[in-house]
Amino acid sequence: MTEETKELQLEQAEKQELVEGEAERTRSRLAFIPRVDIYEMNDAIVILADMPGVDPASVDITLERNVLSINGYVAPSYPEGYSLAWAEYRIGDFQRNFTLSQEIDQDNIEATVKNGVLRLHLPKATPTTRKIGIKDA
Amino acid sequence: MWREMERLRREMNQVFGETAAPSELPVLRGYPAMNIWVNENGAVVTTELPGVLAEDLDISVVDDTLTISGSRKPEEGAEGITYHRRERGCGTFTRSFQLPFKVDPQKVEATTNNGILNITLPRAEEDKPKKIAVRVG
Fold first, then answer.
1. Per-residue confidence (pLDDT) for residue A76, from 0 to 100
2. Which of A2, A4, A37 would best serve as a mutation to test chain B binding (most B beta carbons within 10 A)?
3. pLDDT per residue as tens digits for the range B13-28
4. Which of B48, B47, B93 lies closest to B72 in space, CA to CA?
């Protein structure tokens, strides 16, 4: 497998900063766009998002109409009594929105956070097709 | 030359009271990105490693050089899945860092929490500066 021996690329260490849209954030902290993997199965869509430093309790996920919003809040902790000598990454929240093209069973969304990775399981809603009869005029 | 500029930049940051979240970061040299905190008794190295399991990490210290290596394994893909996005890389990584002092390898501690690796590196006793008492002759 080539996947196994592949080296992690430098760009994977970079965090992309969130550029403010029209709405400004109320928190003054930095926000980053988490890297994601999205895959689709027969019955569900799975989203994996890298959110290092995010505690499972501080993830906020909302689905409104077809827009899924992922927010991960980071409580930065700095080593006490030390001063920063070298910095390659910054600490901030994670935020990203997705527009879902498929109907999702909103009551059965499952979210877990493990080792700084958010896993969202979005089951597809069972399609309710309705035939519309056409009446003769 | 670069080192000099780096020092200047850091000093400027200190003047403006910006230590915890520098707005400009040094050029990344590899994966993962590291933040290094120091004081007179040692150093703390933090890195963001979301999705990297503790058992897949290998940390070693030789004199003043810290080496972190490990791998991020791809998720076991189920049959019949379709990827929409693949932004999260996986593979192996190795990074070495030279600290400004010799480390006591017996006392090095490493913990992972929510995808953040935290390594505490106490300075070796024999490397610590000795205070020399001045006797009055």
1. 84
2. A37
3. 665 554 444 456 667 7
4. B93
Strand partners, B68: B59, B95
Q: Do B115 and A117 touch (CB under 8 A)?
A: yes
CB contact under 8 A, B51 and A13: no
Ordered DSSP codes for A30-42: -EEE--EEEEE-S
- In the stretch 94-133 of chain A, residues with CB closer than 8 A to chain B read 113, 115-117
> Fold for domain A45-75+92-126?
Immunoglobulin-like (2.60.40)
Digit-coded pLDDT (tens) for B46-74: 999 999 999 999 999 998 999 999 999 88
Statement: residue A51 has pLDDT above 90 = yes
Q: Which domains are delineated in chain B?
A: 1-28 (no CATH), 31-74+86-125 (2.60.40.790)
- Domain parsing of chain A, residue ranges: 45-75+92-126
Q: Which of B98, B44, B45, B90 is nearest to B70 (CA)?
A: B90
Q: Closest approach of chain B CAs to the CA of A134, in angstroms? A: 38
